[in-house]
Amino acid sequence: MIDDTGTIEEFLAHHSADVEEAIRKAAATEILPRFRRLAEHEVDQKSGPHDLVTDADRLAERRLTEELSALLPGSVVVGEEAVHANPSSYDAVRGDAPVWIIDPVDGTRQFVHGNDGFCTLVALAHRGTVLASWTYAPVRDQFATAVRGKGAFLDGERLFAGPPEPGRDLKVAVSHPDYTTEDQKRALRALWTDGVAPRSCGSAGLEYLAIARGETDAVAFSWEAAWDHAAGLLLVEEAGGAHLTLTGEPFRITGGNALPFTAARDATTARRVGELLRTG
User: Fold this and answer.
1) What pTM was computed for the model?
2) Average of per-residue pLDDT across 228-255
3) What is the rounded CA–CA span in Å between residue 135 and residue 112?
4) Of 64, 107, 210, 279, which cross-links 118 as Cys (Cβ 3.0–4.6 Å)?
5) Nearest alpha-carbon partner for 216 in 271, 259, 168, 150
6) What pLDDT, on a 0 to 100 scale, did the predictor assign at position 4?
7) Does the pLDDT value for residue 75 go beyond 70?
8) Which CATH number describes the domain made up of 5-158?
9) Is 178 a known ligand-binding residue?
């Protein structure tokens, strides 16, 4: 049983490439063959028409669960589809075992509609701290990785988000209204102001990648699911960015955050967006 961060860091030093290979194989085997070829019986609704799941989600998660837990004996898995089937399995995010956090197809709606704006997200966390992340957009052939304290990379090139260019509106991706409470809607509406150019978000993982690349300035999100945020938040951090909840604290993957929260390409932008959200 692996039970200390030092040992996990040793694992990452030797096996990060194995994790990447497992993700690429899952996409090649279970996701890409179904892209723009989904049959009607391969698509289901979960909580509503905007919350979809496909055979690609289920089968890719199953494959990743088997392969990643075998790579790191003693680890556990929190996957989006497994939690949907058994909500209590989410508790492992708060446990003592190393945990793989998996979103097999982040942006399932885009995937179903034949849009290439989806990705596979994997993070490795321990006792509430994300230690490594992998973001793979298979159709775009983009692979981003991050290891805590060692930087963020896209296809082997170091990522530095940097501050936004002065004098222009901030580009902010915002949660879809269907996924927000009335209080959250009120907070998010504060972003419709001078100096900010808000838009609806797409795949959370790709929005975080856009921040790490300096293409988007910030996000403002209203939900906590660790599989949507763990990988991307570490990527943003390691590219020099920051994230804050409504109380001014960093977002915690273990939950209990004051929402909505923001992640941004630098700390100054995170504070600016956070202040606007608090005025809503």
Assistant:
1) 0.94
2) 98
3) 19
4) 107
5) 168
6) 57
7) yes
8) 3.30.540.10
9) no
Among the residues of the chain, which ranges form H helices? Answer: 5-26, 55-71, 80-85, 108-112, 182-189, 204-212, 226-238, 267-279
3-state secondary structure of 256: coil
**Cα gap 12→136, rounded to integer Å:** 18
Q: Is 103 annotated as contributing to ligand binding?
A: yes
Element (H, E) at 142: strand 142-147
Average pLDDT over residues 130-135: 98
Sequence ranges of the domains in the chain = 5-158, 170-279
Classify burial at 223, counting beta carbons within 10 Å of its beta carbon; exposed 0-12, middle 13-18, buried 19 or more: middle
Domain 5-158 matches domain 170-279 at the CATH topology level: no
Inter-CA distances, 18 with 23, 71, 84, 243, Å: 9, 8, 27, 29
91 is in an annotated binding site: no
Is 57 labelled as part of a ligand binding site? no
Number of H helices, E strands in the chain: 8, 14
Estimate to the nearest angstrom the gap between the alpha carbon of 249 and the chain centroid: 19
| CATH of the structural domain 170-279, one choice from 3.40.190.80, 2.40.50.140, 1.10.630.10, 3.90.550.10 | 3.40.190.80
CA 226 to chain centre: 7
At 200, list the tokens: 């609806």
Amino acid at 72: L
